[in-house]
Amino acid sequence: VGGSAASLWHLAPVADSVTITGLKVNLVRDxxxxxxxxxxxxxxxxxxxxxxxxxxxxxxxSAGNVRIVDSSxxxxxxxxxxxxxxxxxxxxxxxxxxxxxxxxxxxxxRFSAKVNGTPxxxxxxxxxxxxxxxxxxxxxxKSLDVPQYLxxxxxxxxxxxxxxxxxxxxxxxxxxxxxxxxxDV
Length: 185
Hints:
mainly beta
């Protein structure tokens, strides 16, 4: 972590750079609705609810050049009897800040990894702290093995898929502004 003297000026944590290398996460789904980190997520959700009710409790922050490199996630899905691996994770976020001076600046994150051996790449731009949540995401998949993910379909499919590979280049735009949110694919 590369701290910044700007922390004193903004009276909030400011980091010029944050790099995490070799992070390993073991995620276990031990029932249909429970994960080994469900208690942590519940505490975070309660904190977020408190901040939503009283915005003055929101802690300001700014972090530039955020990177997670050469990391992995092992996912043990016990109800489905499946194990998944996300390896070679590389995440880059040039700027992530909820300081007023940065609210109208686009954040342009990048993500790449191998999901069960399949290369996945996602790039985008977003205004994460604006009410519009204006976001554009580009997704690139190569040879995704479709049958192993059909077990996660929320509805039964009218066909049996024994073998299929998916190559995709998708561009998705999302805007929440006003009463009519829009999604373009």
